[in-house]
C-alpha cells in the first residue's frame, strides 16, 4: 500500500495531466457527458475530505504557532492578491459575467494540489497543508464581500447566497468534520486506523477524478464561450507571472525562511478553480460562459506550475529570524 502511495505521489503531475487529456477526449467522444454535472460536488467533497485527512487536525493549534508564516499567507492571499486582481479586471471587457468568472477563480487560493506542487518545488508543503482548512474557510467568508466590492450592483443580481452556504456546509464543514471524526476514532480503533491508512491512497486519484469530470463536463461548452475564454486568457497569463513574484517578495519582507517563502509564492500563484466551479453552475445564466472562463484558468495554471516547480526555487530567499 505504501509503495502504491509513494508511486502516485512521485508521479502525480503525470496523473493529473492524464486526467485532463482523458477528460478532453471524453468531452468530445461521449454523448451527453455534460449530464454528469451533478457528480462534481460529490467528487469535490471526497477530494477535500481526503485532503483534510492528511492534516493532523488535533495538532492544528500547534501548526499555527508559526504566526509569521500564517499572517504572511493571509495577507498575500486576502489583501495583496485582491489588489492585483482589481488592477487586472480593469482590462477586461465590461461584461459582468466575464468579470465574475475571473473574480471567482482569482480571488480564491487553492487548497488541494498547491500542496503537491509546493512539495515538488521544495517549499514548506506541511505548513501549507496545515493551513488549508483556514484558507478555505476564510475565502468562503470573504468571497461574497469581494464580489460586492468589485461588481457593485451587479453582484446582488448575479451572486446568490444559497450556493455559498451550500458549498460551505458540504464542501468545508462536512468533509472537515468527517476527517476529524476519522482521525479521533483511529486513535482508539485498529480497524478505523487501517481504514484511515487506506484513505491516504486517495488524494491523488480523487484530485484526478475531479479534473477528469471538470474537463469532460465543461469542455463541450467552452466552444460556445470561446470569445470570453480568449478575453480572460491574457489576464491569467499576467497573473501567472505577477502573483508568485508578489508572494515571494511579501514572504521576504516578512523574513520567512526559504521553504516558507516558496510556500507563500506557490499559494499566491495557485487558485481554487475546482472548488469554485459549482458556484459558476449556480449563477443564473452563467453557463457556459463562467465555467469556460474558470476552466481556461485551470489549464493555464497547471502548465504554469511546471515552470514554478523548476524556477521558483532558484529565487534567492532570506533566512527567517
At the fold tier of CATH, the topology name is Na+/H+ antiporter like fold
Strand tally is 0
Class per helix and strand makeup? mainly alpha
Order of helices and strands: HHHHHHHHHHHHHHHH
Transmembrane segments: 12-32, 38-57, 69-91, 97-115, 127-147, 167-186, 198-219, 225-250, 262-283
Keywords: Cell membrane, Membrane, Transmembrane, Transmembrane helix, Transport
Organism: Rhodopseudomonas pseudopalustris
Protein name: Arsenite efflux pump ArsB, ACR3 family
Protein model, in words:
Its main location: membrane. With 321 residues, the protein is an all-alpha fold. The protein has one domain: Na+/H+ antiporter like fold (Up-down Bundle), CATH 1.20.1530. Helices cover 78% and strands 0% of the residues. It contains 16 helices and no strands. The longest helix has 28 residues, at 226-253.
Summarize the structure.
The chain has 321 residues and is mainly α.
Give the key terms.
321 residues; mainly alpha; Na+/H+ antiporter like fold; 16 helices; 78% helix; globular
List strands and helices in order, with pairings:
Elements: H1 2-10, H2 12-29, H3 40-53, H4 60-63, H5 67-89, H6 96-106, H7 113-120, H8 125-151, H9 153-158, H10 161-186, H11 190-199, H12 203-222, H13 226-253, H14 258-269, H15 273-282, H16 289-311
Helix pairs in contact: 2-12, 3-10, 3-12, 5-6, 5-8, 5-13, 5-14, 6-8, 6-15, 6-16, 7-8, 7-14, 8-10, 10-11, 10-15, 12-16, 13-14, 13-16, 15-16
Amino acid at each position: 500500500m505504501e509503495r502504491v502511495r509513494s508511486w502516485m505521489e512521485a508521479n502525480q503531475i503525470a496523473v493529473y495531466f492524464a486526467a485532463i487529456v482523458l477528460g478532453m477526449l471524453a468531452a468530445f467522444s461521449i454523448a451527453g457527458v455534460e449530464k454528469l454535472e451533478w457528480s462534481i460536488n460529490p467528487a469535490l467533497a471526497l477530494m477535500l475530505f481526503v485532503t483534510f485527512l492528511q492534516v493532523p487536525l488535533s495538532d492544528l493549534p500547534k501548526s499555527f504557532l508559526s504566526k509569521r508564516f500564517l499572517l504572511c499567507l493571509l495577507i498575500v492571499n486576502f489583501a495583496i492578491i485582491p489588489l492585483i486582481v482589481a488592477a487586472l479586471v480593469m482590462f477586461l471587457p465590461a461584461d459582468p459575467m466575464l468579470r465574475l468568472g475571473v473574480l471567482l477563480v482569482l480571488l480564491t487560493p487553492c487548497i488541494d494540489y498547491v500542496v503537491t506542487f509546493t512539495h515538488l518545488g521544495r517549499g514548506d508543503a506541511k505548513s501549507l497543508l496545515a493551513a488549508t482548512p483556514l484558507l478555505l474557510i476564510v475565502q468562503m467568508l470573504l468571497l461574497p464581500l469581494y464580489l460586492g466590492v468589485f461588481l457593485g450592483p451587479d453582484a446582488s443580481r448575479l451572486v446568490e447566497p444559497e450556493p455559498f452556504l451550500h458549498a460551505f456546509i458540504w464542501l468545508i464543514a462536512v468533509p472537515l468534520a468527517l476527517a476529524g471524526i476519522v482521525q479521533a476514532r483511529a486513535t482508539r480503533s485498529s480497524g478505523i486506523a487501517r481504514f484511515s491508512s487506506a484513505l491516504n491512497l486517495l488524494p491523488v486519484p480523487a484530485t484526478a477524478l475531479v479534473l477528469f469530470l471538470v474537463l469532460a463536463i465543461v469542455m463541450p461548452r467552452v466552444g460556445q464561450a470561446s470569445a470570453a475564454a480568449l478575453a480572460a486568457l491574457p489576464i491569467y497569463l499576467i497573473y501567472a507571472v505577477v502573483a508568485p513574484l508578489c508572494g515571494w517578495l511579501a514572504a521576504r519582507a516578512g523574513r520567512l525562511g526559504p521553504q516558507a517563502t516558496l510556500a507563500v509564492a506557490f499559494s499566491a500563484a495557485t487558485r481554487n478553480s475546482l472548488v469554485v466551479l459549482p458556484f459558476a453552475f449556480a449563477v443564473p445564466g452563467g453557463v457556459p460562459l463562467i465555467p469556460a472562463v474558470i476552466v481556461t484558468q485551470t489549464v493555464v495554471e497547471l502548465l504554469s506550475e511546471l515552470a514554478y516547480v523548476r524556477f521558483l526555487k532558484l529565487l534567492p530567499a532570506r533566512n527567517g529570524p
